[in-house]
Design brief:
By secondary structure, the chain is mainly α. The protein folds into 2 domains: 127 residues, no CATH class; 50 residues, Zinc/RING finger domain, C3HC4 (zinc finger) (Herpes Virus-1, 2-Layer Sandwich). Strands 2-1-3 form a 3-stranded antiparallel sheet. The longest helix has 73 residues.
Length: 219
Amino acid sequence: MQEQIAFARRRIVQLSHNNQKLHLLLDRVERDRDGLLFENDLLQTQLHGYEDHEQHHDALMKELVMLRKRLKRQERKVGSRHVDPAHFQTTHTSLGPLNDTSDCFDDIRLDLDHQLSSMALANYKIDDLKEWEQLLESALGRVRSVKEEKALEVQKKLDRRVEEQNELKLCVICLSNEKSILCLPCRHLCLCETCSRRQEVVKCPICRLEIEEMLAVYA
C-alpha cells in the first residue's frame, strides 16, 4: 500500500512538472504570436505608405498625359502670337525639388492648371509648345525619380526588418542554428540543440542564472 502511495506521489510530481513545461511552451507560443502580429502591422503600414505614393504618381501622370494631348492638338492651330514660357519655368522651379509630402504634388498640379488656363495656347508657336513639352517631361522625370527612391527605401526597410527577425531566431552562442532550447528557471529561449549539449554551458548566456533544466521547444 505504501509503495502505491509513493508511486502515486511521484506520478503527481511528474505530472505537475509536465504541466509547468506546457505552460512555458504556451507562453512562448503567445510571445511568438504577438511578435508576428506586430510585424504584420508594421509591414501593412509600410505597404499603405508605398501605395499612397503610387496613387499620387498615377494622378500626376494622368494630368501630364492630358496636357500633352492638348498641346499636340494645338500644333495645327498655332498663330503668330509669341509668348515666352519663361514665366512658367520660373514659377515651376521655385517649387524646389520634390519631397515625400503630398502638398508638393498638389502645388505642381495647381500651378500647371493656373498657368495653362491663363495663356492662349492656340497662339503659341511650335518652338514655344516644344519648350512647354520639355518642361512637362522634366517634371515627369523628377516624379519618376522620387518614385524609384521611395520604392527603394521601402524595400530596404522591409529587408532590414526580415534580417532582424531572422537574427532574433539564432542561437546566441553559435549564431548559426535556430533557437530550440529553453533554459529553466529563467525561461530564456537562447540555445540551439547542439550548443545546449556543451559541458561548459551551465549558466544561461543571457542572464547568467544557473541552468537547472533545459526544455526543447519546437515551433
